[in-house]
Batch of 2 targets.
Target 1
Amino acid sequence: MTKLTELNLHQALSGLAAGDFTSTELTQSYLNSIEAQNASLNAYLVVTGDKALEMARASDARRAVGNAGALEGIPLGIKDLFCTKGVRTTAASKILGEFAPEYESSVTTNLWRDGAVMLGKLNLDEFAMGSSNETSAFGNVTNPWKRKGSNVALTPGGSSGGSAAAVAAHMCLGATATDTGGSIRQPAAFTGTVGIKPTYGRCSRYGIVAFASSLDQAGPIARNVKDSAIMLQSMMGHDAKDSTSLNVAVPDLVAAMAKGVKGMKIGIPKEYRVDGMPEEIENLWQQGIAWLKDAGAEIVDISLPHTKYALPAYYIVAPAEASSNLARYDGMRFGARVEGVDLTDTYEKSRATGFGEEVKRRILIGTYVLSAGYYDAYYLRAQKVRARILEDFTNAWTKCDAILTPTAPSAAFGLGEKSDDPIKMYLNDVFTVTANLAGLPAISIPAALDVDGLPLGLQIIGKALDEETVYSVASVMEQAANFSARP
Ligand code: GLN
């Protein structure tokens, strides 16, 4: 029999349905895989082995009485930004200490409702702030991929680096992730996996530790487009506990994959050509265009003129919201406290000790751009830019049905290569932040290997609430790319 961890999510679902193996057996093989690899990759912060086996046995019992959900018996990893009842949730920060939530996030509640099994909690950048997983208070995740003939340790991307590495290294069948400025799509591109950020409001934010509330969205990282569709369908849905959750029907994303792209118009934005981008990424983009043309799509040149302002606007809006969201960590209500001589001193000592350098930088920037004298010059102006960016996309939709771009301006880079230069690090998000600022769905799929043998991703951005078109295009691209390389 093939090793169970070789099956992907939809194959595992068929195997479970056919009675070839049980969820308990499947879960045990994933726990073994974690046991064998986690010491070197550091993807899991917590492995909930007993809980996983208990959930798997309950799943097997449900299946035995013909009561199987859409993810029945499927072992998943959960980014440690999602609150999980009674299981330590850290956001990869020291400030949360041993915090074990009293409640479960709505997204994970949906996954358990559909029968999924939790393997553990996955590493990330602290409070999801970063593009390399190096800001985690629990040490970086290491990418399972290496450059050809080199032993240099690479970043899995961030902030959902634990999710991406765990999926790529077959330490779970799929993982939850979150994306505020690219944190699902960039790690997916760096690890040869599929990552989608759906339309803002598709997935409930209830029980997800907040970073920048107007940008944060949950989504899955998976091994292929179909697995991603199955997971996302379970994660989405209206939730009265999140006032920004959209009360709209959940589409059939697997069905959408079969629609093809014949007659579809795909936009190519000229502004997504940035200085210093490797020629290989430009070539890959051209290759993607050719694949879609061959499948019957019409390619149209479009312009998104305000793209160059997206990154600066993002790095004002996101820290501004973060500084406000993170004000709640004061040593009183959650996690770790450092006693001071009086209340203010206790607040200050708790925050100074609990937060890492990048989080402090974001709080300082955010507080600065929101302060009375600077609000109009920075925050208000960034909000205006955000409106222009949305307008750019609205204009583009009069010409095309979806947009194709590279996911990131580089392949996975070396650990430590950018960590002492925040601006360099921020530049890695240049192609991903626009979809967050405009609230649009966007997927990254692995398209090819670069000269060093590292995966590169292409991004498809869709209209608001049109995940179906995103999946139609992604499926065509996946077939054309035929990406089967492994770390
Ligand atoms: N890299 C971006 C940042 O550091 C995006 C992070 C994210 O999407 N959570 O803000």
Note: Residues 4-259+442-481 form a domain with the Amidase signature (AS) enzymes fold (CATH 3.90.1300.10).
Target 2
Amino acid sequence: MSVDRPRPLVAGNWKMNGLKASAEVLDQIKAGYDDALKGRVDLAICPPATLVAAFAEKTAGSGIGIGGQDCHAKESGAYTGNIAAKMLKDGGAAYVIVGHSERRQYERETDADVRAKAEAAHRTGLIAIVCVGETKDEREAGRTLDVVRGQLKGSVPEGSNGGNLVVAYEPVWAIGTGLTPTAADVAEVHKVIRENLAGIVGPAEQAKVRILYGGSVKPSNAAELMGVADVDGALVGGASLVASDFLGIASAYRA
Ligand code: 13P
């Protein structure tokens, strides 16, 4: 990794997993991080919203950031069941994932929705982790780059910069399947994301935006993925629920 690259970020998306007792996993991650990784890679854990405040309290000052998995575009109001960016921030979160493919698919979120959520995150001072990625059909139809370009253009708000934006490339077909794109495929998409970011956040800021790869990242494939140009870290699902796996991945990504 060259000196002008941003420090890698390995983020765990716990999805709809985790109870109070899962604080034990966080303790193990924190201990491993303190031992060998602190200062060399940034970590983030995005637990379910019920655990954000307790996790943030536990990790305060540790270098591990806590994040939400979604937020509403509005600051407050009659939106039963939703959570505002400000509430996550109030609970101690530093990050929020927006536009995860599971939300695009199951909650029918559009690029415009994702952009509004990222704007809400930015207004509140949260770092938005904006997810993009093609489906299997789109890849097979040769549309991957067009899809990713379109999602970026539609989902990344004005005012984004290296400090408040992280982009996660997560091919939908690689999530939870054990399948991963080849290193060459990841390199191709990340290069296009970087080039397109220049047009969105400006030429100076694009180099500072961390572009994560996500989709079946494990300790066994992390080193190869991290070796790919323009891969600045990982967004990890299943493997982030097991401290040793998450730490194994983070070790591969440390600068
Ligand atoms: P897996 O690592 O379980 O494939 O999930 C990836 C993901 O969706 C992270 O946001």
Note: The domain at 9-253 is CATH 3.20.20.70 (TIM Barrel).
